[in-house]
User: Fold this.
Amino acid sequence: MSEEIVGQNEEKMKSLKTLTLAVYILYALSYFAGVTAIIGIIINYVKREEVAGTWLESHFSWQIRTFWFGLLWAVIGALTAFILVGFAVLFANFCWIIYRIIKGWLYLNDGKPMPA
Assistant:
């Protein structure tokens, strides 16, 4: 492989890693402006094919699962808030999402794929 092609591949991976970091940031910012999580999930689906077969693919899967399960538990928590148990569900969901953002961010920073 020529040095030019290797350089292009390294540059593309660096760009995709930065994009993956941006999605983690968008998810974290969603606690202040919920629309940022929607932007993040759109990026995940639009760019998913580009990360296929790389170690970043596991991060995209992690982020997508975080979004959908987080949304599911947020809806369940909101629907059950009137019987008070929903507040516990919402708090647990908040903690779970923060945990997943931090764990993903740390693995990304270390250049490691997310565990299956």
Remarks:
- The chain has a mean pLDDT of 94.
- Helices lie at 3-29, 35-51, 56-79, 85-109.
- Residues 3-109 form one domain.
